[in-house]
Amino acid sequence: MLPQETIRRKRAGEPLAPEEIARFVAGITDGSVSEGQVAAFAMAVWFRGMAREETVALTLAMRDSGDVLDWSGIDRPTADKHSTGGVGDNVSLMLAPIAAACGLAVPMISGRGLGHTGGTLDKLESIPGYAIMPPADLFRRTVRDIGCAIIGQTADLAPADKRIYAIRDVTATVDSVPLITASILSKKLAAGLRSLVLDVKVGNGAFMTEAPEAETLARSLVEVANGAGVKTAALITDMNQPLADAAGNAVEVANCIAFLKGEKAGTRLQRIVLAFAAEMLVLSGLETDLAAAQAKAGRALSSGAAAETFGRMVHALGGPADFVEMADAYLAPAPVVRPVLASAAGYLSACDTRGVGLAVIELGGGRSRPGDGIDHRVGFDRLRPLGTKVEKGEEIGRVHAAGQADAARAAERLSGLYRITPEAPAAAPEIRARISA
Fold it and tell me: What is the C-alpha separation between 255 and 247, in angstroms, rounded?
C-alpha cells in the first residue's frame, strides 16, 4: 500500500492493520517515506488517535526498525524503569544499582534533558571519564558482570523513533498519547526487557499537569507494553515540588552519592526509590510481595551493596574507581555558591516546580536548543521540602552559579518560586495511583 493511502485511511479514522503500520515504519527507516508524509501521518494520529492494537503494532514496528538486544546469556531477569520527566528526579541513578544489588539485570537506556526537565545522561556526564555511549560489548559486559549500566540510546536502537520524533517536535504533534507511548516503549523494548516499571509524573513540574491526563498516558503505556509482551506497571507520582533536594547535574550526582551512603533516609526521594525498586522486583518475579521486596531493596541500600554496585558501574564505564568515596574531588564545583533566603516567616506551602527547572536552564545547566552545551556545575541544592517551617531570612536552598551576577539573579528567582503561608499545607501523597495490566 502506498504511504499516502495509509495516511488517508488514518485521516479518515479507519483502523490500520499491523502489516500496514509495519510497512509505513519500514519506509520511515529506509527513507522511502518522506518527511512530509511522516508529518502528515503524525498529524492524522494526533487528530484521530489509535486503538490499542494499532499502538502496539506501531511500537513493535519502531522497536524492530533497528537492533533488539538479547540478554539470554545472562542469568538474571532483565528489568528497567522509565520516568516521563521531572525536576530533581534522579531516581534512576540510585534505582539501577539498588535493583542490580537485589539480583536484577538493568540495561538502562536513558536520555538527555527535555524542556524544563533534567536528563540522566547530562547528570552522568558530570562524572569524569564516564562513557554514556560505550561500545556494545562493554555495555553487555557491564550489565553481565555488575548488574546494571546506564547509557544513552545508540543509533542502532529504534532509529525510526529518532526520525519520527524530530518531525513531531517541529509539527506540534509531540503531545499525542499514541505517539508518546510508541516513542517511549520502542526504545525500552529494543533494550530486550522482560519487565518495566513506569514513573508517570503529574503536577506543575511535569509534562502532565493534571491527574486525568497522567492516568490516560499511564494506562496507554501499561496496556501497550503488556500487549507487546513486556510485563509492565506504572506509578503516578507527585511532581509539585523537586523530588530530590537538588536540581542540576553535578549537584544531583552528589545527591545520589549521599543517598547511596544513607544520608537521605526518611525523605520523599527515598520512599519513591524504594517503591520503584519493589515494583521492579515483583514484576520480574524475584519477589512475590511488595512489602518484602521493599525490605530487600532497603537492605541493599543500608548494607552499602547498592553504593558498591554504583561505584563498580562508574568504573567499568570509564569513571574513577574511587568515585563513590571521593565524589567531591571529582565533581567540578561551581565558582559561586550562594544561599537562597526565605522572603517571609511561615510554612513553605507551594512551589513553581517548572520554574525551578527553567531557572536551572537559565543558569546554563540545561539547553534552550538541542545542540547547546551545558554547564554541569550549576543548579540548586539544599532545597527544603514543602511543609517546612521557616523564618524570614532563613536558608531554603543554595544556588550554584558560574558568576556573582548569575547567582544573585537565580537566588532571587528561586525565592520567588516558593509560596510561604502562615498555615502548614496539607501533605500530598507521593504516589497518586498504581496502574497495572
Answer: 9
C-alpha cell, 60: 513493535
Give the torsion through C-alpha atoms of 416, 420, 425, 427, to 10 deg. Answer: 50
pLDDT at position 153, please? 78
End-to-end CA distance of the chain: 34
- Specify the pTM: 0.91
Identity (one letter) of the amino acid at 240?
Answer: N
Is residue 365 within 8 A of residue 375, CB to CB? The reply is yes
Give mean pLDDT in consecutive 10-residue pieces for the chain, a chain of 437 residues: 94 96 96 96 96 95 93 93 92 98 95 76 96 93 97 86 85 87 92 95 92 95 93 97 97 98 96 98 97 98 98 98 98 98 97 95 82 90 98 97 97 97 94 93
Q: At what angle do helices 268-284 and 290-302 cross, to 10 degrees?
A: 120
**Residue 105 grid cell:** 539485570
Nearest-angstrom CA–CA distance, 348 and 364: 26
- Can you count the helices (H) and strands (E) in the chain? 17, 13
Q: Which residues are catalytic?
A: 80-83, 120, 168, 183, 187-188
- Report the residue count for the chain: 437
Helix 353-360, helix 404-416: angle, nearest 10: 170
Q: Which helix (H) or strand (E) holds 380?
A: strand 379-381
Return the SS3 of 103. coil
How is residue 155 written as a grid cell? 543509533
